[in-house]
Design goal:
This protein is α/β, with parallel strands linked by helices and 177 residues long. It has helices spanning 14-29, 58-68, 86-94, 118-130, 155-175; strands spanning 2-7, 34-39, 72-78, 104-111, 134-135, 140-143, 147-148, 151-152. Strands 1, 2, 3, 4, 5 and 6 form a six-stranded parallel sheet that branches. A two-stranded antiparallel sheet has the order 7-8.
Length: 177
C-alpha cells in the first residue's frame, strides 16, 4: 500500500510540515506502508488546458504519474481568501477522474482564520466526491497559531493528526481486502 501526501502549494512551509506529520504517523501505525511526499513547490506544472492528460510532458507528466501510482492520499492545502490555492486546483484539473476512483483521501488544511475549516467541507469534499473517492470522516484544520518555530505545538492538533492517520490506513486496508 502506498499513501501519497500532497502539499498543494508553492508558498510557505506549514502545509508541507502538516502533511509530513500525517505521513510520519502513518509509518508509526504500519511500517510496511510506503509513504511519499509530493511537494508541488518542487515541480513546474503546466496549467490544465483540457487536453488528454497522457499528452503532458516534463514535470506535469511526472506529477500525474506520481498521483496515479498511489493507493490513497493525504491532501494538504493552505487556505487563501477562503479557498484552496490555484496550484492545488490545477492539480485536480490535471488528474484523470479514474485515478482517484475508490481510493481514500484524508484532508489537512492550514489557515489564519478559524472559520476557514469550512473550506474542507464546502470545496474539498465535493471534489473528492467528483473523483468517486472515499473521504476519511475526520480532517485536520491547523491554525497558524498552532505552529511555533515551524513545528506543530498543539497537542489537540497532534491528536487529530494521529486520528486521521489511523482512519486513512484502516479505510484503505478495508478497501483493498
Amino acid at each position: 500500500m502506498k499513501i501519497l501526501g500532497i502539499s498543494g502549494t508553492i508558498v510557505g512551509s506549514k502545509t508541507k510540515i502538516t502533511v509530513e506529520k500525517v505521513l510520519e504517523d502513518v509509518k508509526e501505525i504500519d511500517s510496511n506502508i510506503e509513504v511519499e511526499l509530493l511537494d508541488l513547490k518542487k515541480y513546474d506544472l503546466q496549467f490544465c488546458d483540457g487536453r488528454d492528460p497522457k499528452t503532458y510532458m516534463g514535470d506535469t507528466k511526472k506529477v500525474i504519474d506520481i498521483v496515479s501510482s498511489a493507493d490513497s492520499y493525504i491532501i494538504g492545502t493552505p487556505i487563501f481568501h477562503g479557498t484552496m490555492p490555484g496550484t492545488l486546483k490545477n492539480l485536480f484539473d490535471l488528474i484523470p477522474v479514474e485515478v482517484m476512483n475508490n481510493k481514500v483521501i484524508g484532508f489537512v488544511a492550514v489557515g489564519g482564520n478559524y472559520q476557514h475549516y469550512l473550506m474542507i467541507e464546502n470545496q474539498l469534499k465535493p471534489i473528492a466526491g467528483y473523483f468517486k473517492s472515499f473521504v476519511a470522516p475526520n480532517y485536520v484544520f491547523v491554525h497558524n497559531d498552532n505552529f511555533q518555530d515551524n513545528k506543530i505545538v498543539s497537542n489537540d492538533i497532534l491528536e487529530e493528526i494521529a486520528r486521521l492517520s489511523k482512519e486513512v490506513v484502516m479505510m484503505q486496508k478495508v478497501i483493498t481486502k
